[in-house]
Amino acid sequence: MKKNYLIAIILLAFSVYMGCKKDDEFNCGDTFIDSRDGQNYNTILIGDQCWMAENLNVGDIINDTLKMKYNGIIEKYCYDNDPANCNEYGGLYQWNEMMEYDTTAGVQGICPDGWHLPTDDEWKILEGTVDSLHLVGDSIWNRIGFRGYDAGKNLKSKIGWFQNTGTDAFEFTALPGGCNIDDGYFYKITNSTLFWTSTENQGSAWNREVFYGVDKIGRGFHVPENGYSVRCLKN
């Protein structure tokens, strides 16, 4: 009798909890569904940051010979103009399109509600969290070029790379989706992936690169007309 009573109390407590929990309550690590198009994204908690574990893939495909426009429509490139590549690697976005023509670092941009475009400094936190030698706050993260020890290797996926695949130690799963250069040329697929940050730098914008032959992670700044991958960070 006591056992049955205890079970009843546990079931009652669970039903009360479920009744109080919102249907749309999100916990990092859950699959996030973008209400704009129904796209699903894996998420992962790395340190204190909640990242999308997949590249953003929202918007309408345009041909690589066209420039993205400030027209109220999110536009994207798909590598080789093939929608299948967007499904696998996510879209490629020019910086201004990604930012929705705002220049404020950390703006929501084309991310879903509740998410934002990571800043250069927020990327430094990620790098210091995943690197096994250089911690958050290390001055090495302020440098330009490939730096750190193994942050790139730890962020890279275990599959898809030309060679020197990653460990995906933190389940960030950076795939080698390549990029689009402002003359309409796609390149680097299976070799590299470049991510925009939302931080400007004298008419250009800071980015990150993970490359097949390097365990480190690259930091640079490029013209905003280039088409790079986008990750969103939870507010």
Strand portion? 25-35%
Coarse shape: globular
Question: What is the overall pLDDT average?
Answer: 92
- When the domains are counted, the total is 1
Q: Can you count the beta strands?
A: 16
Any overview of this molecule?
With 235 residues, this protein is an alpha+beta fold. The protein has one domain. The protein contains five helices and 16 strands. A four-stranded antiparallel beta sheet has the order 9-14-13-12. The longest helix has 19 residues. The N terminus is likely disordered.
In short:
By secondary structure, this protein is of the alpha+beta class. It is built from five helices and 16 strands. It has one domain (53-234).
Blueprint (SSEs and pairs):
Blueprint (H helix, E strand, L loop, with lengths): L1 H19 L11 E2 L6 E2 L1 E4 L2 E4 L7 E2 L13 E2 L6 H7 L3 E2 H4 L16 E2 L3 H11 L14 E3 L3 H5 L21 E5 L3 E5 L2 E10 L2 E8 L5 E6 L4 E2 L4 E2 L1
Parallel strand pairs: 5-6
Antiparallel strand pairs: 1-2, 3-4, 7-15, 8-16, 9-14, 10-11, 12-13, 13-14
Task: Write a concise keyword list for the protein shown above.
alpha+beta, four-stranded antiparallel β-sheet, 235 residues, single chain
